[in-house]
Design brief:
Layout (H helix, E strand, L loop, with lengths): L1 E4 L5 E4 L10 E4 L6 E9 L8 E2 L5 E2 L3 E15 L3 E8 L5 E12 L9 E4 L4 E2 L18 E7 L7 E12 L7
Antiparallel strand pairs: 1-2, 3-4, 4-13, 5-12, 6-12, 7-10, 7-13, 8-9, 8-12, 10-11
Length: 176
């Protein structure tokens, strides 16, 4: 029931936290055009005002070009105000951009289960949606874990969102 960072810089979980994640997610790649997708389910009731890494295996690599962010409602949100979704550096404490993927995205837009919002650099679908982060349509200059927080002290009492970050890896050196 705890964590520590070993001498190699690896984040180690032990006890009841070993092998668990409160925000399930993963990554897949090789789609048409070489796009990759990082996906995480955010339980809004677990968010605080402190930026938190959502999943230990969901990250956006250095030199990735973020093409879009999709938000799909799994469970309608209630009570809370808005969320930020961004990136925390691999050291697990340094900000890459805390609201670089979604900036003050209102639980709002009154999403019902199954509804989806899509954020591009220059537009959103539907057009009335707000909250596009500054990294959308940009190249990430540092590998970062996907993170989230609520924007104020008002806690969510319900709500789950599936967030997908679409990106193209540019100049990735896999030779070491």
């Amino acid at each position: 029931m705890g964590t520590w960072t070993n001498d190699d810089g690896l984040h180690i979980k032990y006890g009841t936290t070993e092998g668990t994640s409160t925000h399930p997610g993963g990554q897949y790649g090789g789609t048409v055009g070489g796009e990759h997708v990082a996906e995480v389910v955010i339980d809004l009731t677990l968010l605080t005002e402190t930026e938190t890494i959502l999943n230990d295996v969901v990250f956006i690599p250095n030199n990735a070009w973020i093409t879009k962010v999709e938000v799909q409602c799994i469970e309608a949100a209630a009570t809370g105000t808005a969320i930020d979704v961004g990136l925390i550096d691999q050291d697990r404490s340094t900000e890459v951009d805390y609201d670089g993927l979604l900036a003050a995205f209102e639980d709002g837009d009154a999403l019902a289960p199954g509804e989806t919002r899509v954020f591009f650099e220059d537009h959103t679908v539907p057009a009335s949606t707000t909250g596009t982060g500054a990294l959308v349509g940009q190249e990430v200059t540092n590998t970062g874990y996907v993170s989230a927080s609520r924007t104020d002290g008002t806690a969510f009492t319900t709500g789950k969102l599936k967030v997908r970050v679409w990106y193209v890896s540019k100049g990735l050196d896999v030779t070491g």
